[in-house]
Amino acid sequence: MVGQRAAILAAAIGGTVVAGMLVAGPAALWGAGAGAAGVAGAAVSGAAAAGGGAAAAAGSAAASPSSALRPAPPRTGGAPSGAPAARTRAEVEAIIQRAGVTPPDWWNSVPLVYPPTLDLRWPEAKGPWDPQKNVGQYVWSVINENPPKWREGVKFIHHVLAVNKDNPPVVQKAVGSLGTMYHNLLEDWARAAFWWRKAGMTDDADLARCYWKLGSKEMAASVIAKFTVDDTRNGNVIKLWADMGDLDKALALAEATARDGAPDIGYLAAGDACRLHGRYPQALQYYQKVLDAATGWRDLKQNKERARASIDAIRLVEGLDLSKVRDGTYTATSRAYAGPLDAAVTVQGGRITSVKVVRHQEKQYYTALADTPAQIVARQGIRGVDAVTGATITSEAIMNATIKALAKGMQ
Asked: What end-to-end distance do the CA atoms of the chain give, in Å?
């Protein structure tokens, strides 16, 4: 039965079945997924969008230069180093719109591959966890945990959107998922913003981060200024204020969040904000408040562990001098989300030349394993390192393990 179903689906989309996986041609389905996605009207104009997608693909080099869709280059000013250069609202809006109707530059090189056992109707999950049947569970367990499959997964959700273009609830789920995947997995800020806005998520903190990464602090601030407390699990709104250089606003929101019944989230994010800006004594005070908190959110125990690990790392930072670290590679461990994480740090001539995660048990780590080490090398330390949103705990563990490793090499 599975073989027959796969063969029927393959014939329908012009693909084949290879090793039990449905494989479509590489150019299939962009237009149907990326054209006129009308969530409010619950429709995706398949035929018209397919034509528009093909035209966009043919002219993608001219219509959407890769430099326009990447984060803007660094700017100077109050924000930590690495902040994007300023763009006007009109420029950012144009970039988002162009990206939304244009296939990514990798599109034609990635086939549409997925298990034929998946129920593309994407019903609500019932019964035991089954990533070979449920679309959402497939994305969580198979796609998110395997970076080589990230682009493949995005293309698959575009396909799910096209298949369900007349099913409003599934359209809503698929469009929202595309925003999340472009943001968390590919760091394609323009396409993430495009799809999240199609999903109606106009007041989302992560959408604000997209605006910031694309170069508009004004657009980002207009979204997060509406938050009177940070109701995200890891203090993402507080974090964004700090990333944008508004430390006072970050700390004010952290205090409000603590008063609202989540001192562990508020004070932990405040400590991270101060640490980002190099205010280590103030960071230590906030982390201590996390340890002193009698109540908190559902992650209270874990947040206390994170605060303790950050206190230990900062105390090491205060006595650390890279010029006194002997040449060599040093390894240390810190607690991440799923268990211990080991980082190997190489120093040559008083400079950090490499940071590598050599052991971990993380699953939903997104880009943290690559981005955080790269930032540490670029900044020659942890000051100004931007933890990956959605994988904050993993990023923190890498930073803390790095500091511990460097301390081992001090002469």
From this structure: 67
Say whether 19 sits in a helix, a strand or coil.
coil
289-341 residue pLDDT tens: 999 999 998 889 989 998 998 998 888 887 888 888 999 999 999 888 778 89
Torsion of CA 219, 221, 225, 226, to 10 degrees: 30
pLDDT tens digits for range 178-211: 999 999 999 999 999 999 999 999 889 999 999 9
Rounded CA separation 157/120 (Å): 10
pTM of the full structure: 0.77
Contacts of 279 (CB under 8 A, 6+ apart): 247
Rounded distance between C-alpha atoms, residue 359 and residue 361, angstroms: 7
Are 129 and 140 in contact by the 8 Å Cβ rule? The answer is: no
Structural domains in the chain plus CATH codes: 2-217 (no CATH), 227-315 (1.25.40), 320-408 (3.90.1010.20)
CA dist 111 and 134 (Å) reads 20
